[in-house]
Specification:
By secondary structure, the protein is α+β, with helices and mostly antiparallel strands. It is about 25% helix and about 20% strand. The chain is built from 16 helices and 19 strands. The strands form four sheets. Strands 1, 2, 9, 10, 11, 12, 13, 14, 15, 16 and 17 form an eleven-stranded mixed beta sheet that branches. Helix 2 packs parallel to helix 4 (about 210-220), helix 8 packs antiparallel against helix 11 (about 420-430) and helix 9 (about 375-385) runs antiparallel to helix 12 (about 445-460). It is globular, with a radius of gyration of 23 Å. The two termini are about 35 Å apart. Mean pLDDT is about 90; it is low at about 5-35.
């Protein structure tokens, strides 16, 4: 399970902290069912801020909230996360069982009858492909020496699955067993869910292999990568990973239907670039919660006022706009017309990240820029009136609702950036006037406001701030690609597990976009993912928080406040504080 980038003001990433280091994980064996309220059939229109740009949300480029939401509705797996942050097992899809604690061993068995929308069964080959992509098993790159190859551009952290050897595949073709060399805190959410997105039979064919058995045999034939003894890039593995990395990227409906196959409740029917997407019921789907609606249309509208207007005019049934005082007031004014408004803190936060290169390679310049950021003004303008208790977020790891937050914030060094200090910034710059290009989603009003406030303040210290804003379907892909010095965006948390911390902060990870690297932090993160005691997880996370602040990494800005609204024509909509949002139980949505 990984963190996702979000477009909303609060960042679908768990507004206040990058990751909940001691989230409720829990497990459940219940099988989800559709709600009885409402009628079967009909359609709804949902409005989102971002626009879909890939059918593989697992890549570093594709890891945005909207890509994950569409994947969640069109794919399935062994579990999902409910709005109480419980891991709920989907026994209709298959069985995931821990068969041993020492060594930690987990067996996955896909039920007979589970299939892709082209009729091909979902098999152990699909699980093996996911393991290969998520584990980094074949990578032998040494970023320092600039040798070797990194194959699959997985957005999450591979440290946990790197503790496994090549999986054991069952003779039934539907089961796979992985064995860990050490305990792994997030084993329950490491593989097989909440969705299995990329079909192995399609990837095999695109890479020039005859079938999935050839793919399995090929994976078996390849040794584990060793960065100390890198081999020349394998052309077949490179073709396969390149296809996985970018082959499913698109803003329009592909002419090749194998590039958007479904194994979930819905199938994508049509796409209008940067405007909308429509999904229809997968009539064969019976291996998970049964959806009520026949069709879901998703419209992409970044402007909050336009979202409210669409809801008012009956052009939308569910909206999730940028949370602002004006937006909430406008939505609540519609309550007399049958509109329900849900509001709450999210497991997401907005932040300013600084590259460790270019003009910001100098720590003094990074610290100077951080001293100019008017965090209190940003909080006041964007979320202050929505949450009277809102304050600048003072941890890169925790959110205020967590017990460890106060202690971490007190000791991590964030106190140096409570107030704007232009004189202090000027002293650090020593007469220099660095040009800093800041990248952000220019179609997100809250990000625009944040950028404007930072530019105005930083200019007083001598910084030359350049507007590097990009469009709603382009900013996510630009992360980590260069061409900017700092960026404003949000991280969204799934609400369970600790792997989100190394996902973002571990050296050379795919989601470490600003190239932060600290050997001490890396060691602490390696310890974190094999620690199952939550109090010890908190202690390790606080130490990591300190190291991030010591490096002048950048600044967390605020925990997000989420707002959703929906018409009385729809039932079953329930608030969720994580990256999935109201989509977490889309199968319960129904028309009255």
């Amino acid at each position: 399970m990984r963190l996702s980038r979000i477009s909303t003001a609060l960042g679908v990433a768990a507004a206040a902290a990058i990751v909940l280091s001691a989230c409720a994980g829990g497990s459940g064996g219940s099988t989800p069912t559709a709600a009885a309220a409402g009628k079967t059939g009909g359609s709804v229109t949902v409005v989102e801020v971002n626009a879909l740009n890939t059918f593989n949300p697992n890549t570093a480029d594709g890891n945005t909230d909207i890509n994950e939401k569409i994947s969640y509705a069109t794919h399935s797996g062994f579990y999902y996360i409910d709005n109480r942050l419980n891991v709920v097992h989907n026994d209709k899809f298959g069985k995931m069982e821990k068969v041993s604690d020492n060594p930690l061993t987990v067996k996955y068995t896909i039920n007979d009858g589970v299939k892709w929308s082209d009729g091909t069964p979902v098999t152990a080959a699909d699980l093996l492909l996911q393991w290969a992509a998520f584990s980094g098993y074949y990578d032998d790159a040494d970023p320092t020496a600039k040798t070797g190859t990194s194959y699959f551009s997985y957005t999450g952290d591979s440290t946990g699955l790197a503790l496994t050897d090549f999986p054991e595949l069952g003779t039934d073709g539907r089961s796979m067993t992985v064995k860990y060399s050490k305990p792994f805190a997030d084993w329950e959410i490491a593989l097989g869910g909440p969705t299995i997105d990329v079909p192995a039979h399609v990837l095999a064919k695109k890479a020039g292999l005859s079938d999935t058995q050839a793919l399995i045999d090929f994976f078996k034939s390849k040794p584990r990568g060793d960065s100390k003894a890198p081999l020349p890039a394998d052309p077949k593995l490179k073709a396969m990973s390149d296809m996985w990395n970018t082959g499913f990227d698109t803003k329009t409906l592909p002419a090749d239907p194998t590039l958007f196959l479904s194994n979930g409740p819905y199938i994508v029917k049509s796409m209008n670039q940067d405007q909308s997407l429509t999904m229809v019921r997968n009539k064969d789907y019976n291996w998970g919660p049964t959806a009520n609606l026949d069709e879901i249309t998703v419209r992409y509208i970044g402007d909050s006022a336009a979202q409210v207007q669409a809801l008012k005019n009956g052009e939308a049934d569910i909206v999730a706009p940028q949370a602002s005082t004006d937006t909430v007031d406008q939505l609540k004014a519609l309550e007399s017309q049958g509109i329900t408004v849900d509001q709450g803190n999210q497991l997401a936060y907005d932040h300013l990240d600084l590259n460790f290169s270019g003009p910001l390679a100098d720590k003094n310049v990074r610290e100077a820029l951080m001293k100019t950021v008017p965090r209190k003004d940003i909080v006041s303008k964007i979320v202050g009136k929505l949450d009277p208790n809102a304050e600048p977020l003072d941890s890169q790891i925790f959110v205020p609702q967590q017990a460890a937050y106060a202690d971490s914030a007190k000791n991590n060094g964030s106190s140096a950036y409570q107030d704007v200090d232009i004189d202090g910034a000027k002293k650090l710059l020593n007469g220099a006037t660095p040009e800093i290009r800041i990248m952000y989603n220019k179609d997100n009003p809250n990000r625009v406001d944040t950028f404007s406030l930072i530019r105005e303040s930083a200019s007083k210290a001598g910084f030359k701030i350049v507007d590097g804003g990009l469009g709603k379907s382009d900013w996510g892909k630009a992360l980590g690609k260069g061409g900017y010095d700092a960026t404003i965006f949000g991280w969204s948390n799934p609400g369970v597990g600790v792997s989100g911390i190394p996902q973002i902060f571990k050296s050379d990870n795919g989601s470490n976009f600003n190239m932060f690297s600290d050997s001490g932090a890396d060691k602490l993160m390696a310890d974190l993912i094999v620690t199952t005691d939550r109090s010890k997880q908190d202690d390790l996370s606080k130490q990591i928080d300190n190291k991030i602040w010591d490096s002048a990494y950048g600044l967390p800005l605020f925990q997000g406040v989420g707002v959703d609204a929906y018409s009385d024509r729809i039932t079953g909509v329930k608030y969720m504080p994580t990256q999935t949002g109201v989509w977490w139980n889309f199968w319960e949505w129904a028309q009255k």
